[in-house]
Amino acid sequence: MADPSSYRPKPGQIPDSPGVYKFRDEHRRVIYVGKAKSLRQRLANYFQDLAGLHPRTRSMVTTAASVEWTVVSTEVEALQLEYTWIKEFDPRFNVKYRDDKSYPYLAVTLNEDFPRVQVMRGAKKKGVRYFGPYGHAWAIRETVDLMLRVFPVRTCSAGVFKNATRTGRPCLLGYIGKCAAPCVGRVSPEEHRELAEDFCDFMAGRTGAYLRRLEREMADAAEELEYERAGRLRDDIEALKRAMEKSAVVLADATDADLIALAEDELEAAVQIFHVRGGRVRGQRGWVTDKVEAVTTADLVEHALQQLYGEESGDAVPKEVLVPALPEPLAPVQEWLTQRRGANVSLRIPQRGDKRALMETVGRNAQHALVLHKTKRASDLTTRSRALEEIAAALDLDGAPLRIECFDISHLQGDDVVASMVVFEDGLARKSEYRRFQIKGFEGQDDVRSMHEVITRRFRRYLSEKEKTGEWADEAEQAAAPVSGPADNPPVARDDTDPEQGGLVEEDGRPKKFAYPPQLLVVDGGQPQVAAAKRALDELGIDDVAVCGLAKRLEEVWVPDEDDPVILPRSSEGLYLLQRVRDEAHRFAIAYQRSKRSKRFRSGPLDAVPGLGESRKQALLKHFGSVKKLRSATIEQICEVPGIGRKTAETITAALAGAAPAAPAVNTATGEIIEDEAPVSAGTSDERGPQQ
Question: Whole-prediction pTM value?
């Protein structure tokens, strides 16, 4: 590990001008490339106290052994040079897009004497027009098959073309009219190139003018009694329309635009792009990137723009690019895009209408891609096995933790405190054994105390079942418990201290799953939560269950009685598994907390007040705290609530005065009566207590 002060440039050496910088390691490999409006100010940020740096930045500067820079004239030049160097050196600490090299494109080789239409993959080449990408190669071939009737451009390989030229006989497509057969001189090179350019214009979205021209030619042919020619033109028009129908109209104003959306977590981000030409989705692409450096959404957008348009020019760059966040600063990026296109490019965030709705669709695709990516990692047996082995090695366990239980605490500003327990066996979620807990002994934002209580209750049940059954239950019986209900809504135990649940037996007579102990207990939090969990186990005399905590902010793994966390590599499968376990516990806890919170929003008698919507009901309940206090308030006091006028206040007073006090609010989901005097929280966000 290098000391950054050993290679820090001397004061005054770094110029105060735009430029691009490179960090190199001891072997002179470039490990990071960045750009800056002011090199002096930007590089100074790397040579501050290591404790103040982001962990990934700290790792980069301690891995590096030298830094160098190149001064440029403008920020736009810096943007272009940064992209060039990233492509050239592939630095390990830069954002790495696992790009869509396997995505097929429809390509027209305009750089050849006789342009060819074909499916192409991989890196793009100069002089070739690309359309797409498409999801499947067969989708390209279907489109080309329809288009060749109207634009009979060459599609054969170089070998077939040369052989046809040598023999003087065209291929089958030449005989059936789907190739102009330039190989045997049926059309001149100029005429064939014109066909290829018309093909490109049509694929680029300039369809209306061409269809109108064909319709005029068809009408003229009919007037001149050339019915066979008119019939061929009619069929050509129908073929082009069928090709167009394969892309649905999404923007009515025939806009040319690219829409970029992101879905991200602490370690990865999924990028999705829709290419819209002429108001129709002409292509879609996407990738997943590792967040190797500390990057914001705006930074990811800028990297995506570089990835998309770094080697593009002309019509490949649309006149409008819609993004979820704008790069900072915006002007250089927008100017760079304008230079690539050769005309103005609008880079903005859609605010309303069809474009906003389409952006939401792209965002859902990005979210699905991220979930699918993580699911594929989790479903692979080899990957899961490696993840468990990495966790065992990092935590110094005797064996792989085949059963992992994770606990999380959730509440709304100290109210409705609940906890969740999720179970992963062999790296996969076992939803039938999820459990949830109510924390009733106290109120307030005390996650440490709540965690201690939940762990105590869970393992007290474990000891109770162990004593009752006289050691472990039969493993086959433990594994045979049926799963009922949808996968996303597993059967769960209610408060495990509730005497109404009938002891330690499920409804089908099988022992509860608390008798099956985990090899690893994970808590959502840092050192305080881990210490609380360990203390609970020690108090119960349990010493054969390992404990760790995953701190969300920096993804650090904390173990008991250690001052420093265990840092798993960013690409570690073990870290991915721990993150999935932690996130699932958080999701399950939030879902339970929401279900409890919903009955706090029930406004009882206020539902009968005419013209009073949900927003004003919540405003009234937030202001007065309960329906009982609202009922005793005067009209003037009710008018103090924002959005409540005197006429509405009079209506509320009359409705509450006429309402029977014995008719309390009822939770429609459970039929449970909600006391009128119970305080009501009007918050709506998923707020939780501070997590370590």
Answer: 0.46
